[in-house]
Amino acid sequence: MSLLDARGLTRHFGGLKAVDGVDFDLAAGEIHALIGPNGAGKTTFVSLLSGRLPVQSGRITLAGEDITGLPAHARVRKGIAYTFQITSVFPGLSVFDNVALAVQGGRGSARDLSRAVEAALYRVGLETLRRETAGTLSYGHQRLLEVAMGLALQPRVLILDEPTQGLAAGEIGAFKALVRGLVPEVAVLLIEHNMEVVMDLAQRITVLNFGRVLASGTPDEVRANPAVQEAYLGA
Amino acid sequence: MKTWAAHLAVLALLLAAGFLLSPYHMTNLARILVLATFAMGYNLAFGYTGLLSLGHALFFAAGMYAAGLPIWHAGLAALPALGLGLAGGAFAALAVGVLALRTAGVSFMIVTLMFAQAGYLTLLYFNATTGGDEGFALPATGRRLFGADLSTDVPRFLAAWAIFAVTFLATLALVRSRFGRVMVALRENEDRARMLGINPFTTKLGVLTLSGAASGLAGAAYAILFGYAGASFATIQYSILPMLYVLLGGAGTVAGPLLGAILMFMLIEAATEVTSAWMFLVGAALVILVLFAPKGILGALRTRLRGLP
Questions:
Q1: How many structural domains compose chain A?
Q2: Chain A CB contacts of B195 below 8 Å
């Protein structure tokens, strides 16, 4: 059964059909990649899923519950975490404080909070940098901090928007291992330009083009699809 | 622990200073402490949460009249009047916030400014009840606290110090709490904070209400300690002053509003001896601060000394 399900999602900006009747489902525990040429509507589509943009029509359900009308912060609390395409950690706060913000609610003692933060930092390998000011970290470390903040939300769905952009080649291998270690507790929706990362990680791939679903299936199926080849290689 | 010790030391120093100064300056210090309490309230909204309000005079005046009118008309005692002042400021801020927080940035400044102007005009319109422009002197019955006469120097100073101390320590506890961290997150990057599951509207409304409560408490204390309430306290000037104190001392620092209030008070005091155009000086100070020292004194210090709350 699908965990996150979208039917007929639509978002137009004036005459531009950024997202035009997209059906999509994310199964529990899978890594699902969303790819497509620049301007295909990928970021708009996940903005609709996360609630950063309101949908114009269509319906979104999370584990069967209709969340179409919920504001972004409420969806986060339901378990949809989004990490930003452009790294946007809180530069003036410490690494610890950044992650602590993501640990939900006022419940629990200071010790519980500290433990939850440590667990998320340990997961991405930043545990030794907890006292550093986030803005002074290297770009790669800031990306990892983004992921740690996402994990501290204890999400059911983690949306990673171009997570390997700007990472050095050596950092990408570690990042793939990190993402692979997140499933099956978390379902991952990965928006990614790096095809090697996509083919390596994803169990399923959905291809968007001009705001519509061009193809959806396993990496092999998508690779063999003539329409996909044309969209990427032709024109 | 070190932070708490440092802030307690500041309070002890203020208490000692009050008794070392002449009675005239003791009363000035009491006035500074009440205005600094107002500025601490302003700082919660502006310094910590990034809500640039131009309407805090409304919350100050709401506290002043919520305390002053029952004392004047119904002979209420000072202690419950202080409580009413706090509640009046909080309620005014809550009501304004529900509407004004639908806007942000420049629009928020304009909307809060308009609400404050409407409040000022309301005070003038109902001048039979409020005393209008002339205001009213508070009767002696409403200026007694725990048997002490607040129109005399020492009890007045002690009351101002106590009100300041409570607000000071409450602010410190608040900004070091989880909620304090959320406030800073909203100031730094609201969109990111929202994607961490933080509801921006309710959080800001909560902050503005607390900010209004502190402002209202200060307004009530000002009326009761100095014996006068008037519509001039609801003018734009009293929205600008706390902003100026906060900017000068350091926005988003616990002790900044105090430092700013002391320095600005001394500056205005010195200026009024040479010229009646002291408002010009206030304006010039504001421009210079924004241009050359946007972090204020403690803000600039903090970038060198990490961990200053």
A1: 1
A2: 50, 52, 72-73, 76, 81-82, 84
In chain B, the number of structural domains is 1
- Would you say residue B124 lies in a domain? yes
Cβ–Cβ contact B178 with A under 8 A: yes
Is residue A146 in a domain?
no
The residue among B134, B140, B145 whose CA lies nearest residue B79 is B145
The answer to the question of residue A22 being in a domain is: yes
Q: Is A224 within the bounds of a domain?
A: yes
How is residue B29 written in tokens? 């210090």
In a domain, B265, yes or no: no
What region, left, alpha or beta, does residue B266 occupy, with left being phi > 0 and alpha being psi -120 to 50 degrees? Answer: alpha
Q: Do A93 and B200 touch (CB under 8 A)?
A: no
State the Cα angle at B267 between B264 and B272, rounded to 5°: 125
Does residue B146 sit within a domain? yes
Neighbouring-strand partners of residue B144 = B149
The CATH number given to whatever domain includes residue A5 is 3.40.50.300
Sheet holding A204-209, edge to edge: A80-83, A157-161, A187-191, A31-35, A204-209, A212-217
Contacts of A194 (CB under 8 A, 6+ apart): A164, A172
Which residue range(s) make up the domain with B85?
A: 2-236
The answer to whether position A152 is within a domain reads: no
Pairing of strands A212-217, A80-83: unpaired
Cα A208 to Cα B199: distance, rounded to the nearest angstrom: 31
Distances (CA, A) of B211 to A134, B82, B192, B208, B230: 29, 16, 24, 5, 22
In this structure, are residues B167 and B63 in contact, taking their beta carbons and an 8 Å threshold?
A: no
**CA-CA distance, A24 to B231, in Å (whole number)?**
61
Cβ of residue A108 closer than 8 Å to a chain B Cβ: no
How would you write the pLDDT of chain A (235 residues) with one tens digit per residue?
689 999 999 999 988 888 999 999 999 999 999 998 888 889 899 999 999 999 999 999 999 999 999 999 999 999 999 988 777 889 888 999 999 998 865 556 778 888 889 999 998 889 899 899 998 998 888 988 999 999 999 999 999 998 888 888 888 888 899 999 998 889 999 998 888 899 999 999 999 998 899 989 999 998 888 888 887 765 4
For residue B294, the distance in angstroms to the closest alpha carbon of chain A comes to 16
Full residue range of the structural domain in which residue A31 is found: 1-79+157-163+194-235
Is the ipTM here above 0.90?
no
